From TrEMBL, chain A:
Major location category of this protein: membrane
Protein name: ABC-type polar-amino-acid transporter
Membrane topology: Peripheral membrane protein
Taxon lineage: Bacteria, Bacillati, Actinomycetota, Actinomycetes, Kitasatosporales
A single cellular component GO annotation: plasma membrane
Keywords: Amino-acid transport, ATP-binding, Cell membrane, Membrane, Nucleotide-binding, Transport
One Pfam match: ABC_tran
From TrEMBL, chain B:
GO MF, one example: transmembrane transporter activity
Span of domain ABC transmembrane type-1: 74-263
Cellular-component GO terms for this entry: ATP-binding cassette (ABC) transporter complex
The keyword Cell membrane belongs to this UniProt entry's keyword annotation: yes
Organism expressing this protein natively: Streptomyces rubellomurinus (strain ATCC 31215)
Protein name (database record): Amino acid ABC transporter permease
Family: Belongs to the binding-protein-dependent transport system permease family.
GO biological processes: amino acid transport
Cellular localization per UniProt: Cell membrane
Keyword vocabulary terms for this entry: Cell membrane, Membrane, Transmembrane, Transmembrane helix, Transport
Transmembrane segments: 27-47, 74-96, 108-133, 241-266
Length: 257, 282
């Protein structure tokens, strides 16, 4: 198996997100234990693992929606700021897509995508609207621009949420179980947008239970259990020959129905 | 979805009645009707006994000066209410913002203010303000008292409304890089106000009715005027208490209905698509 030029350029690129010795507790529960992780420019990292393994928490620490107790997180060489304007500025660089979409319920679809650009990036409104319409077209919901989120299907809402995050021109995108709240027939329309994004070279961290997506779009699969990264490998190697017992056990449960 | 919802709601509240239940309800209905009619007759008979329906008692309302006094009283009531409503909503927003602050001293101070003025009986507050600061200008004692009390209640309403907005709304806004003030002003408060509007309007209705406490500190509002009219024996028929109640009462009721209609209008205007279905249904 030869490495593709894309993978070559990824392994040569500088690390964009670096976590070192990251620890977090929820009371007595040690939810992240000495996490070390480097994510390179253009890399698509998929986090899988049983529920409660800390994968969502790990994802949310990268834009500090969850604080950490010890360790260090840097993004593009800069340590994650603790608060204030610097933190807000960093968050514009890190796009986030949530399990429950979290579109602003009182704003139209277009306004959802425009708002961040105008309020945070200080883009002129007409430019922001143009960008928003382009992005909405790109994720295939351009026709819904003037509707309210509640009038859209889950899959459409999630695609709007992706467009909203992309509008900030982030360096890295975090996806926290983006398809877990969707009806089965809507999962693919969202995954398709994410595949496209990955093909366009976006750096992505994806927490998911969609093994098909992990197989086809990921550069690297991280398997987490009990707050630790138990195993990481290319998707092919991980799915065909998992090394750890935990991963074997997990895969046997989800792959053989 | 919607017809489903309707039947679901109906059957949660109570079972659709069967034939025997329907017959029973009919009997209850007739009995209640008789009961209510009897009560009304009792009220009428008692008042009539005391001569309150004597036409002569209503003569007083034919005087222009009396009519003018009622209009003046109404305007005074509306003035106090308008000021108190505007100030209490402003104060409520400020105190709510303070209670939701990240800074502990601010949070504590605002919570203390809210708890104090919410617990303080409004009448005591108004009387104290009147004797202490506003002996020559009772309107401001009334307005300030109403503002402090109702502002505290409005603050609690707004605060709980903000807390009731799904957590993800704020998280999504922070994730876009918004600062706390922006998240509050453009995401949380607009949604909170929308869902809390009925409670806020009810509190405004309370504010409106409580302007009548002004009569105790000699503020010439509607109730003061009514009491003044009622306590003048204009002729041999005696004091026109009931006629005054029958005139002043409906004015208050009409004002409250107007406020409620306004609330309903704002609500209908604000609903436009938002939150018809919870966007966070997982």
């Amino acid at each position: 198996m030869t490495e593709s030029p894309v993978e070559d350029s990824i392994s040569a690129a500088a690390p964009l997100v670096v976590l070192s010795k990251v620890n977090k507790h929820y009371g007595a529960l040690h939810v992240l234990q000495d996490i070390d992780l480097e994510i390179r420019q253009g890399e698509v990292v998929v986090l899988i693992g049983p529920s409660g393994s800390g994968k969502s928490t790990l994802c949310r620490t990268i834009n500090r929606l969850e604080t950490i107790d010890s360790g260090r997180i840097t993004i593009d060489g800069h340590p994650l700021p603790a608060e204030g304007r610097e933190l807000a500025r960093l968050r514009t660089e890190v796009g986030m897509v949530f399990q429950n979409f979290n579109l602003f319920a009182h704003k139209t679809v277009l306004e959802n995508v425009v708002m961040g650009q105008v309020k945070v990036r200080k883009v002129i409104r007409s430019h922001a609207e143009k960008t928003a319409r382009e992005l909405l077209d790109r994720v295939g919901v351009g026709a819904q621009a003037d509707k309210y989120p509640a009038q859209l299907s889950g899959g459409q809402q999630q695609r709007v949420a992706i467009a909203r995050a992309l509008a900030m021109k982030p360096k890295v995108m975090l996806f926290d179980e983006p398809t877990s709240a969707l009806d089965p027939e809507m999962v693919n329309e969202v995954l398709e947008v994410m595949r496209q994004l990955a093909a366009d070279g976006m750096t992505m961290v994806v927490v998911t239970h969609e093994m098909g997506f992990a197989r086809s779009a990921a550069n690297r699969v991280l398997f987490m259990a009990d707050g630790r990264i138990v195993e990481q490998n290319t998707p092919d190697a991980f799915f065909t020959a998992p090394r750890s017992d935990r991963a074997k056990d997990f895969l046997s449960k989800i792959l053989h129905h | 979805m919607s017809p489903f919802n309707r039947t679901a709601t109906a059957s949660v509240l109570y079972d659709a009645p069967g034939p025997r239940a329907r017959a029973r309800y009919r009997v209850f209905g007739v009995l209640s009707l008789i009961g209510v009619a009897g009560l009304l007759w009792f009220v009428y008979a008692t008042l009539d006994d005391k001569g309150q329906f004597n036409p002569a008692l209503w003569d007083v309302f034919q005087y222009n000066t009396v009519q003018q006094r009622i209009v003046d009283g109404l305007l005074a009531t509306l003035e106090a209410f308008g000021l108190a409503a505007a100030f209490s909503l402003t104060l409520g927003a400020l105190l709510a913002a303070g209670q939701l602050s990240d800074h502990k001293p601010v949070r504590w101070a605002c919570t203390a203010v809210v708890q104090f003025f919410r617990a303080m009986p409004l009448l005591i507050l108004i009387v104290a303000l009147y004797y202490a600061f506003f002996a020559t200008d009772p309107m401001w004692a009334l307005v300030l008292g109403l503002t402090l009390y109702n502002g505290s209640v409005q603050a609690e309403i707004i605060r709980s409304g903000v807390n009731a907005v799904p957590r993800g709304q704020g998280e999504a806004a922070y994730a876009l890089g918004m600062r706390k003030t922006q998240v509050m002003a453009s995401i949380l408060v607009p949604q909170a106000v929308r869902s809390m509007l009925p409670s806020m309007i009810s509190q405004l209705v309370v504010t409106l009715k409580d302007t009548s406490l002004g009569f105790i500190i000699t503020y010439h509002e509607l109730l003061f005027v009514g009491k003044a009219i009622a306590s003048q024996p204009t002729n041999s028929a005696g004091f026109p208490y009931i006629p005054v109640v029958l005139v002043i009462g409906p004015i208050y009721i009409a004002l409250c209905l107007l406020l409620t209609a306004l609330a309903r209008w704002i609500e209908a205007r604000g609903r436009r698509g938002a939150n018809r279905r919870t966007s966070t249904a997982a």
